[in-house]
Amino acid sequence: MRAGIAVAALTALALCACDGAIESLRGHDTAVSRPAEVRSSDNTPATPPMTVSDAAPPPPAPDSRLVPFNVDAPRADADASALRCEFPGLSLPPRFAVYAAGAYSGRKLDYQIDQSGHQATQIDVAVSEDALPVVLMLGAYEPTVWNIGWSPRTRIVAVLVSGYHRQAIAGLPSSVPRINSSHDNKGPCGSFYVTEEQLATLNPIARRVFGQPVTRAFIANNGFVAVGNGGTSGLLTDATQPPGGFRDPDAPLAGEAGLRDALAKGLLREARESDLSAWHSAYDAANLRDAPPVSGARPSRVSGGMLHNAYVVVRPMRVPAGLYGAHSATFIVPRGVQRPTGELGHSRIFDWNTMTCAGATCSME
C-alpha cells in the first residue's frame, strides 16, 4: 500500500512539472512572437542638412515658427520648421556676381507699409555691371521699399531681400525671380540685414542659396546705394512697380504728415496755453494732495512743457509712426475721450481720465 501511495505521488509531481514547463514555453512563445518597436530618440526621422539640390522637407506643423537664420547653428536646425529656402526652377549661369547691399534703414517716408508701427523707409539701388550677371542680396532692419534701377547692359537674374520688418521691391520687373524673407513674414530663409556689423552673416546665406559667397557688399547712405561699378547714368526701371504702391491703407500717415492728417480729419486740435495750464494744476492737485507745503520747489516735472507739437485729442485715433526726437509730440486726452493707440515713439500722453503721464519722455521733464 505504501508503494502505491509513493507511485501516485511521483505521478502527480511529474504531471505538475510538465504543466509548468508547458506554461513556461507558452509564455516564451508569446514574448518572442511580439516584434520589438524600434523608435528614434526624438521620435522623428533624422533630417540631413539642406542643400540647394536636396529634396524638400515635409511642410511645417500649423503652430511651427521659423527659426531666424543663425550662422553658428547647423542648417538642419535652422530649417527644421521652415519652408524651402531656394529659388524653384532657377538655373544660374556658370559665372555670376553676388552683390549684397543695404543698411539699418533708408530715408524716411511719410507712410507705413505694414502693421509694425514703424515708419517706412526707402533705399534706391543703382545696379551697374557689364561683365557678369548679377544676383542681389538686399537687407534692412526697418520696413523698407527697395527701388531698383539698372544700367542697360546689366542683367539681374535673382533677388533675395530680407529684414526684420516688411520689405518690398519696386522698379524691378515681376519676371525677375525673388525671395522675400523677413522676420515678420516668417520667410523661408530667416532674416538678415546688410550693415558693417552684420557682414559675417552674409557669406553663409549666399552659399546656402546661391552656392557661392558674396562677391562684394555695399552699404547704403541716406537711402541710396550704387552696386557694381558705380555707374548711375541712364538707369532703367519698371514703371509698373512704383515705390508708393506698397503703402498700407489701414495705417495712418507717419511722422509730421500723420499729425497734419489727423488735424485735417478733426482727430486732433492744436493745444493752447490754457490746456497745458489746466493740466499743470490738475496734475499737481491729484499728486500732491497729501504732501506737505514746500518752499523752493519747481513745478511738477510732467505737468508743464512747451506748445511745440502739443495737441488735444478730440476723437479716437492712432498715434502716427516715427514720432522721435524733434518730431515727438504731446497729446492731451480730455476726460471721456479715448486714449490714442499705437506706438508713442518719443511722444507722451497727458491723460485726464487717469491723471497720469505715459511715454518715454515723462521722466525727462
Strand content: 15-25%
Approximate shape: elongated
Radius of gyration: 35 Å
Low-confidence blocks of residues: 1-82
Distance between the termini: 119 Å
Strand order of the largest sheet: 8-6-4-1-9
Question: How many beta-strand segments?
Answer: 15
What is the structural class?
alpha/beta
Helix percent reads: 10-25%
Query: In this structure, how is the largest beta sheet organized?
Result: 5 strands, parallel
Per DSSP, the total helix count is 5
Order of helices and strands: HHEEEEEEEEHEEHEHEEEE
Q: Taking all residues together, what is the mean pLDDT?
A: 77
Describe the structure.
With about 375 residues, this protein is of the alpha/beta class. The chain is built from 5 helices and 15 strands. The protein has helices at about 1-35, 75-80, 200-210, 255-265, 275-285, and strands spanning about 95-105, 105-110, 120-130, 135-140, 145-150, 155-165, 165-170, 180, 215-220, 225-230, 270, 310-315, 330-335, 350, 355-360. A 5-stranded parallel beta sheet has the order 8-6-4-1-9, covered by helices on one side. Strands 2, 3, 5, 7 and 10 form a 5-stranded mixed beta sheet that branches. The chain has a 5-stranded mixed beta sheet with strand order 11-12-13-14-15. A hairpin with a 4-residue loop joins β14 and β15 (about 355-360). It is elongated, with a radius of gyration of 35 Å. The termini are far apart.
Descriptive keywords:
disordered N terminus, 5 helices, 15 strands, elongated, five-stranded mixed sheet
